[in-house]
């Protein structure tokens, strides 16, 4: 069985866009939940304490799970649309890349969140590819 080639360019662009979206969303959501606890002249230890408070006493983590899953769907959608062919292979490639990213950035303190990320990444990526396929012309 020959595996059709995937567009590495489409995957690279989509993954970079997904990481960028994750970064800016996390800044916005963290700022929202931290509120006035953030100050311009905070020391590193003060910032770490605010980060601990935000992640343990607010709904920050569940919201980041929702947004992270949404960007995974969006990244796979974008990869499949940019490639313009074999959307499910591109979605799967994005999911595999996402799993590798979770494994490389594994944080022992958030073990359960990492495991959930591993379980959700492939299905979310395939769903993004499925959405992209709906907007692509039928192959002949």
Fold blueprint:
Blueprint: H1 8-34, H2 44-57, H3 60-83, H4 87-104, H5 111-134
Average pLDDT, to the nearest integer? 88
* Shape call: elongated
Tally the structural domains. Answer: 1
Cα end-to-end separation: 21 Å
Give me the Rg, rounded. 18 Å
Contiguous low-pLDDT stretches (5 residues minimum) are none
Q: Would you kindly provide a brief summary of this structure?
A:
Helix content is 76%, strand content 0%. It contains five helices and no strands.
What does this structure look like?
With 140 residues, this protein is mainly α. The chain has one domain. Helix content is 76%, strand content 0%. The chain contains 5 helices and no strands. The protein has helices at residues 8-34, 44-57, 60-83, 87-104, 111-134. α1 packs antiparallel against α3 (60-83) and α3 packs antiparallel against α4. The radius of gyration is 18 Å and the shape is elongated. The mean pLDDT is 88.
């Amino acid at each position: 069985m020959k595996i059709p080639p995937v567009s590495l360019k489409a995957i690279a662009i989509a993954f970079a866009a997904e990481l960028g979206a994750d970064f800016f969303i996390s800044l916005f959501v963290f700022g929202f939940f931290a509120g006035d606890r953030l100050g311009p002249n905070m020391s590193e230890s003060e910032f770490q304490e605010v980060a601990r408070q935000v992640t343990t006493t607010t709904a920050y983590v569940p919201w980041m799970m929702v947004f992270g899953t949404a960007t995974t769907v969006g990244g796979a959608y974008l990869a499949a649309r940019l490639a313009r062919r074999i959307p499910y292979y591109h979605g799967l490639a994005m999911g595999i890349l996402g799993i590798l990213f979770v494994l490389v950035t594994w944080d022992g303190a958030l073990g359960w969140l990492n495991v959930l990320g591993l379980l959700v990444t492939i299905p979310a990526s395939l769903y993004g590819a499925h959405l992209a396929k709906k907007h692509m012309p039928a192959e002949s």
